[in-house]
Each structure stands twice: as structure tokens, then as C-alpha cells.
Amino acid sequence: MANVVSEGAREPQERRTRTLRAEGALKAIAADQESPERVHRVLEQALVFAGAAFAALYTPSQDGELLRLVESAGVPRTLYGLRDSYPRTGRSPVAEAHRGGRPVSLGPAELAEHVQARRVPSRDFFLTALPVHGDGGGCLLAVCERPDGFDTDDRECLHLISEAVAFPAPAAPAEAGELPPGAFSLAMDTGRVRAGDDLLDLFGLDPVEFDGRVETLLGLTVPEDLPSLMSVVEADHMSIGDRELEFRVLQPTGPPKWLRLRGRLLPGGVGHSARLVGTVDDASTLRSDVTDVARVQRLATALATAVTVRDVGKAVVAALRRPLRADRIALAELESDRLVVTVLDPPEPESWPELWRREWRTEWPDAPVRAMPTLAAALREGRARIWPAGSALERGLSEVGPGGLAVLPLPAGNRMAGACLIGWDTPHDFGSDERALLTACAGLAGQALMRARAFDAEHELVGMLQRQLLPRRLPRLPGAEAVTRYLPSTAGLELGGDWYDVIPLPDHHVALVIGDVQGHSAGAATLMGQMRTALRAYAVEGHTPDVVVSHANRLLMDMESDLFATCAYVDIDLEEGSAWCVRAGHLPPVLRYPDGTTEIAEAEGGPPLGVITQADFPMSPLRLPPGTLIALVTDGLVETPDSDIDEGMERLADQLAASSPGDLGLVADALLGNAQRSDDVAVLLLRYDGMDLRPLRESWTVWRVPQAVGHARRFARRTLRSWGVTEDFDAALLVVSELVTNALVHTDGQVRMDLTLINDRLRVAVADASPRSPVRPTSIGWEATGGRGVLLVEALSATWGTLPVSGGKQVWAEMTLGR
């Protein structure tokens, strides 16, 4: 990266970038059709993007004989001997460009011979006049003091500006008639003022008693503010264009009142006096801060409650950007020798230089300090540095503030916490008060940034511990997709108690669980881990949803904890698209159907866990057509200090209705985007798509009779034939025989056999009432009378195993069959 790049030595790529930025700025100004400052703002772009020192717009007079100056920007025109009007038939560059319809450019040599332009400065300058087409026509005049004048890219920017001003200039207020609210008109030769009643009321004057003299109004102002006011009302010290300042007027009681004046000096022309027109408004209604002291106090208050680095950045932006009328602010932390950009305002990439977008707009945008020597020097010195418009800076900084740049090192003790960059697009004047304000704000922001950095580090540690208690990954589900999100609270550093879980169950069922333990402490997090483990264990045992939640409630009561917990448990049958929901003091699910409609499920609820020993937890049915999205959340997402849970649930339903469920991750991120974060937030989303291939199932109750194994074999043979299985009968029937025989011989009670076929995968499962799992023998002799069944099942099956079910176990085996 080059350290210093002169205006005339910029590369073609940068020129194209500058032209595109000028085009974007002009489009933004053109979009504001009603702005009375539109022409002036357009002319200011010539100073920013074309390197002009002065720019002006001339339009034909009413009689058509003159080209009169209606708006200007930059240094006073008198420095270049320019007039406020030129004859349309004369030899001036303005008239020649207007008549010929083509640009006219004059260098120092041509200007020296031109009688219409008397060059006052000792150094040379260049002048370019471009015709303005449309709405009566006119001429754009620009002056450049650079040694090489306007280059090709500068002239292209001037061409864009001449097109942008091709609309009627704001008309001057008429001498007679009603003035707009807060408006005034001052005749510069007589000092007579026309003002509305509302403006006189700001000065505390009775409209009937006002004598119309400007001296009467000036006599009511604070004496210290008179010099700045006189510089506005004296025509010799003003160029054509807008002026703005704030001043104070004395009050009968209390402190002086701050007012803001916006004025524009309009030329009088032949036989008419120049007039100053504009508005005066109450400054307290236009800005959030009345004095620089108040700005610092407000920033200190905001930083006192800012706990994260991002909160600090938002407070600095709110305190500085609008009051200073800055176009962009960047806040960056200093880590070793690198800058980590934490806040960019505005956040849109196109608002920042191409270099920033290319090298810094990553997940954690950063850059070495040595890449910007000017910034590195400011950080070493430790004091605020200010560069006005036109200063030679490296590319990484010059395009941040072409109209002015302020760099604020953020000190914290004996080190630098970071830096704040403030940039303006239009030329900005830095006063002594503004410099003092920036220095004071930098010290406050540096201390707050160090505190926030420590908080972020500790909070990240807490969040890491919290995440260790939650599932690391979610299972893959047939016919469904699930995503989860968890955000710890930013209100403190203690652990929270929100949790979630997705539990795959036999027969293509899945259990969704979400819950919240009372409080934010290590005890709450520990209890959360215990409840999550308990619910998973009870669910895997094969209990129905109400029994699972009842067991968890009894467990929590037996633990004699002072805390209670809420949870919602939903058991979904992925084959049938149906579900059962149980609530224990928790929020109900929210369903988004395929047509975009939403519904807050009317699921009957029970009390929170750990409150009543003998509590009922009723089950409520849910229907899930393919494409349905089911959302389970904790109260941290929907409850805020300003609204209750019911309003939050309705807001959640509206957000889901407006979402696109194709990407669940984006939906979850959007839900968390507006979370208040005063509490933990957990979100669990599942989209049910339906299974493409539903398995075939049949069950058989094995009676304890001598021919029980034969009956089971005949049932299995008939079932497989009805499913189209024509091969591998013997292996499948032998597995059935061994599993049923083991259940009858080694257990008591009921025995049930389940057959499941999906694709060519056959699953044989035999459930019995004994919790003891079969044991694979290590060796078998010729004289042994048992133990071979398990070895046969293992040899004939692709995989086999056991799992606990309510009151017993299930032994299963899977194999691949030909159909």
C-alpha cells in the first residue's frame, strides 16, 4: 500500500473508482427531490471528486440577457475575479459555453489575456465552463488550483455534475406574501428583516412591537456570538451559497436558548439589492445535544452501560456521527500490531473505500497498523489528529474522509485500546471546540473499550462452558431437518439454564426437547445438564411423552433442589407426520404450515418440573403436513421489558410467516437478530418434509405354547412373501427362530416380534420383559447345550444389538434381503 498518493498520480483503477463514487453520491442527492439544498450539495461534489476549489451554477435571467449566479460552493468567487452575472452575448467562458453548447477550458495563459477574468491570486489556476442542458439551460463553472489543472477523470466528474444540476434552481422567496414557518428575508442594503411570527417567538419578541430592523434581533443575542452572526449578515464576507451556524439568545429567566440559522445570500442583480434568506430553528429540537459538555456527558452515560465492544461502538457512533454530521465512522481495536475493525457505520460495504471492501470486509476484518503509516504515527503520539479536505494521505485513509478526516487514538491507561476514524465527504471545518470534544470523547471511549474487551473475553468463556452442556451436533433425521441456536445472556457473566435436545427414537420417531431452569448460576447450569440427561434416558427407554416428563418431574422433586425448570417435549412420528406435545410450564410450539399460515399450538400444559410431585402432564396431538415448520423457543426470545409473552409469541408467529423455511439456518438467525439478549435465548426449529420411502411393518405376539417358534416362523414367511421377498428366506427365518427361542427360554412375560422392511433392509426385533441383555459367549465346547443362538444371529446379520424399552429390552438384528 502506498504511503502517499498525489491527486495527479492516481492509477486508472482508482480513477474509475472515484468516478463511480461520484455517480453514486449524485444519485443519492437526486433521490431527495424536495431538498432546498439540492443544488448546493451537487456543487459540493465538484470539490470532493473533481478537486475543484470553487464551483458555481449560472442560469439565464428572466429577461434572457444575463447569465446570473444562483449557487456556488467553495472559496469566495472574488478570489478569482468572477462576477455574479455575465452578458449572454459576451466573451466570457460562461457565455461561450452556454451559447456553443460545449465545454470551454482556460489555463493561466488564456486567462491572463481574458478581460472578463482578472486573476487575483499570485499562483495560477485553471477554469472550466460546461453547458447545462434542460430547464432553460445554464452553465457550470469550476476552478482548479492544481498545477496540472483538471485531468480526464476530473472532467468526467464535472460532466456528471453538469447533468445533475440540469433542473430548476430553488426560487428565491418573493418579497411579498406569506413566509414559510421559521423563514426570514434580510435586505442587505437597508438591514430590513421580514420574519414570521414563529421566528420572532424564538427571540421572545411580540410581532406587533417588532420594528423590522436586524439590529433589534442582534441585540438579543449573547455578545460572544455576535462576531459569527455579523460574518453572516455582512454581504462582503459571504459568497453566494448556504451558510449555517448556531448562536444563543438571551432569555428572561434561565440559560440562553440555542438557535440554528441556515442562510443563503442571493445576488440582487441590476437595480435590486442582494438578500439573505433562510430559516431559524430551535437547535434543541434538531440535535440531541445542546452543548459540547452535554455531548460528553451523554457519551459517558452511554458508555457506563455498554458492556460489549459492539455496545461501545454503537455509543460512540450515536454520540459523534450525527452531531458532527459525519458521513462515516469506524471503530477498531488494537491487538498487538493489528487493527480489528469492530464497528463500521454505515454498515453497507459500498459506503467504504474499495480497499476496505477488498481487504477488511471479512468475518473479522483486520489489517496491520504498518499498512497505514499516518494512522500508526497518530497512535504513537496518542493524540487526536485532523486532516482537512485535500490532505495527502494513504489510500486506506484518504477515501474514508475526502472532505476531512479525524483520527482519534483511544487511550486506556498506559496503552492504546484502539482507534476511531471519522470521515466527511464534503469539506468540513474543524473548530477548536470540536477538537476539544473529540479529545474528550476519545479518552472515555478508550477506557470503555478496555472494559468491554475484558467482558467479552469472560463472556466467551461462560458461553463456551454453557455450550459444553448442550449437544455438539444434531442427528440426521429421515424426512426432516432440524437446526438449533443458543445465545447466552449479555446481562451478566453467570451461566444460564436454557437447553435443547433432539433425540432419535426407534421406528422413525424423534423427540424435540427445549427447557429453561430457573435462574442464572452454576447451579442452574448443573441442573440443566442433569435434566437434559434424564429426559434423554427416559425417552430412549421407550416411554410415552407424558411418562417421560412425569419421570423427570419426580426426579427433580427427589433431588430436593430449590430451583424449578420448564420444558416442552414433542414426540414426532416421521412416518405418519403426527406428533404428541407435552408442556411443563413452558411456551407452546409455533407451527408454520406449507401455505405460510402460522399457528400457536393449543397444547394443554402442566406445571413446571420440580413444583408438584403428583402432577399431570397431558398430551396434545399435532398434525404435521409435509413442509410444516415447528418452532420451540425459550422466553428470552419473546419476552421483553416493554411487552409480555403473548405479544412476543404473536410477533414470533408473524416472523415465521414471513420467513422462507427452505434454509432453516437463515430463519433461526433472523429470529435471533432482534433478540434483546437480557436473558438466555434458545431456538429449536424442525422442518418436516415427509419420508420418501415409508417402511413396511408387521408385528406378532408370541404366545408361550410348544409350537410358538413355528408359529413365529410361519408368520415371518407369510409376511416376507407379501412384501415381495423371494431370496434369503432361510437366513431370515433362522434369525427369527433364535431370537424368539432365547426370549421364551430366558425370560418371563409377554414376547412380541416386530418385522420392518425398508428398501432391502430387514429388521427383526423381539421384545421381552427382562432387562438382561444376551451375552455373547467367549467359547463353546461340543458338549455345551446353549449359547450358540447369539453366535448364529451375529453370523447371519449385518448388525445386531439390544436397547432398553419400558419394562424390559428389545433384541434386534438387521440383514439385507433380495426382493
Automatic annotation (TrEMBL):
Domain of life per record: Bacteria
The keyword RNA-binding is assigned to this record: no
UniProt cross-references to Pfam families, sorted A to Z: GAF_2, HATPase_c_2, PAS_3, SpoIIE
SMART domains attached to this UniProt entry: GAF, PP2C_SIG
Keywords tagged on the record: Hydrolase
GAF domain span: 308-459
Coiled-coil regions listed: none
Family annotation (InterPro entries): Bact_Sigma-Reg (IPR052016), GAF (IPR003018), GAF-like_dom_sf (IPR029016), HATPase_C_sf (IPR036890), HATPase_dom (IPR003594), PAS-like_dom_sf (IPR035965), PAS_fold_3 (IPR013655), PPM-type-like_dom_sf (IPR036457)
Domain PPM-type phosphatase: start-end pairs: 480-688
PANTHER family: STAGE II SPORULATION PROTEIN E, STAGE II SPORULATION PROTEIN E-RELATED
The protein, known as: SpoIIE family protein phosphatase
Taxonomic lineage of the native organism: Bacteria, Bacillati, Actinomycetota, Actinomycetes, Kitasatosporales
